[in-house]
C-alpha cells in the first residue's frame, strides 16, 4: 500500500492540534432554552440514558470519528475507547480505509485497539462514501469485522476532498451505494458529514435510502477544508491551498442542520462545534438524539484515559444541569423542551 493514506491521518492530528482550523457560528449561541423556575424534579433522579442504533448509552454523548490508520494514533484511540467503556457512551473511529488497504499489524492495531480496550462499548466504524464503489458491501463488512463494530458510519467529505492534494472528487453513484450498504450490511448504518452540515433535502434522500442515523457534522467546529489548505501549502499545491482557505467558512451551521434533519429522520446526532454539555442539551431540544464532539477530546486523549473520562463527566454535569433547569427528567423530555431561536440562526431558517 502507498503510505500516503496512513501518513495523511498523522498529518491531520498534528494540524488540528497545532494550527488555526476552527470555525465559529455553529448556531448554538442563538438557541436559548427556556428556563423552568419550578422543575418539580430531583436533579439526581434525571435519566440521561438514550438508545442509539439499538444500543443503550448512559448519556447522549458521542466521541466523534477522529483517528486511526497510523501507528502514532494507537494510544489516542486506546484512551478514547477505554473512556467510552468506563462511561457508557459511544465512540467512532476515523476512516478505516488505511486498515482495509494494509496488512501492516502496527497500523491495524490503531483500529483493533478500540475493541480490545472497550469490549462492551458502542463502537462504530467509518468509511468514506467515495470508497463504497470500490469496496461494496463485502468490503464494508471487512471494516465491521476489523473492530467488531456495532454500527458503521459512512462519511461525506467531498469539500475536504476538493481541497486535498490527493483528493477523490468523484461523487457519482454515492447515494445508490449508500442504499446498497444500508440494505445489505450486518449492522446499522450512520451517514455523517465532516463539517459542512446536511440539508433537509439530503436528509430526505438518506432517510429514503434506509440509513439508521444521520450525523449532521455541521459548520462550527474543525474546518476540514482549512486542514487540507495547510497540507496543500506544505507540498506546494498553491491552488488547492487557496481553495481550502476560501471555503473555510462554507457549510450549514450545526444548529440549523440539526433542526432541518430532525424533520426528516428520527435518529439524529448533532456534531460540529459542539463544545459543552449545554450545547448537547440545545441540540437535543432541536430534535437530536445525541451530541458529538471530536477535537475537544483530542488533547485529553493524549494525556490518557482519566483525562478523557474527566471531560465526559464535565459534559454530563452540564447536560444534567440544563435538563434540571428546563424541567426535563429524561432525554425524551428534553426533546420537547421550549426554546427560542435568535440572531443569524433564525434568519438562516427563515431564508
UniProtKB/TrEMBL annotation:
<keyword id="KW-0285">Flavoprotein</keyword>
<dbReference type="GO" id="GO:0008299">
    <property type="term" value="P:isoprenoid biosynthetic process"/>
</dbReference>
<feature type="binding site">
    <location>
        <position position="192"/>
    </location>
    <ligand>
        <name>FMN</name>
    </ligand>
</feature>
<feature type="binding site">
    <location>
        <begin position="294"/>
        <end position="295"/>
    </location>
    <ligand>
        <name>FMN</name>
    </ligand>
</feature>
<dbReference type="InterPro" id="IPR000262">
    <property type="entry name" value="FMN-dep_DH"/>
</dbReference>
<keyword id="KW-0521">NADP</keyword>
<dbReference type="GO" id="GO:0000287">
    <property type="term" value="F:magnesium ion binding"/>
</dbReference>
<feature type="binding site">
    <location>
        <begin position="273"/>
        <end position="275"/>
    </location>
    <ligand>
        <name>FMN</name>
    </ligand>
</feature>
<feature type="binding site">
    <location>
        <position position="95"/>
    </location>
    <ligand>
        <name>FMN</name>
    </ligand>
</feature>
<dbReference type="GO" id="GO:0016491">
    <property type="term" value="F:oxidoreductase activity"/>
</dbReference>
<dbReference type="GO" id="GO:0005737">
    <property type="term" value="C:cytoplasm"/>
</dbReference>
<comment type="subunit">
    <text>Homooctamer. Dimer of tetramers.</text>
</comment>
<dbReference type="GO" id="GO:0010181">
    <property type="term" value="F:FMN binding"/>
</dbReference>
<feature type="binding site">
    <location>
        <position position="222"/>
    </location>
    <ligand>
        <name>FMN</name>
    </ligand>
</feature>
<dbReference type="InterPro" id="IPR011179">
    <property type="entry name" value="IPdP_isomerase"/>
</dbReference>
<comment type="function">
    <text>Involved in the biosynthesis of isoprenoids. Catalyzes the 1,3-allylic rearrangement of the homoallylic substrate isopentenyl (IPP) to its allylic isomer, dimethylallyl diphosphate (DMAPP).</text>
</comment>
<dbReference type="GO" id="GO:0004452">
    <property type="term" value="F:isopentenyl-diphosphate delta-isomerase activity"/>
</dbReference>
<dbReference type="InterPro" id="IPR013785">
    <property type="entry name" value="Aldolase_TIM"/>
</dbReference>
<keyword id="KW-0413">Isomerase</keyword>
<keyword id="KW-0963">Cytoplasm</keyword>
<dbReference type="GO" id="GO:0070402">
    <property type="term" value="F:NADPH binding"/>
</dbReference>
<feature type="binding site">
    <location>
        <position position="161"/>
    </location>
    <ligand>
        <name>Mg(2+)</name>
    </ligand>
</feature>
<feature type="binding site">
    <location>
        <begin position="95"/>
        <end position="97"/>
    </location>
    <ligand>
        <name>substrate</name>
    </ligand>
</feature>
<feature type="binding site">
    <location>
        <begin position="8"/>
        <end position="9"/>
    </location>
    <ligand>
        <name>substrate</name>
    </ligand>
</feature>
<feature type="binding site">
    <location>
        <position position="126"/>
    </location>
    <ligand>
        <name>FMN</name>
    </ligand>
</feature>
<comment type="similarity">
    <text>Belongs to the IPP isomerase type 2 family.</text>
</comment>
<keyword id="KW-0288">FMN</keyword>
<keyword id="KW-0414">Isoprene biosynthesis</keyword>
<keyword id="KW-0479">Metal-binding</keyword>
<feature type="binding site">
    <location>
        <position position="160"/>
    </location>
    <ligand>
        <name>substrate</name>
    </ligand>
</feature>
<feature type="binding site">
    <location>
        <begin position="65"/>
        <end position="67"/>
    </location>
    <ligand>
        <name>FMN</name>
    </ligand>
</feature>
<keyword id="KW-0460">Magnesium</keyword>
<protein>
    <recommendedName>
        <fullName>Isopentenyl-diphosphate delta-isomerase</fullName>
        <ecNumber>5.3.3.2</ecNumber>
    </recommendedName>
</protein>
<dbReference type="Pfam" id="PF01070">
    <property type="entry name" value="FMN_dh"/>
</dbReference>
<feature type="domain" description="FMN-dependent dehydrogenase">
    <location>
        <begin position="170"/>
        <end position="337"/>
    </location>
</feature>
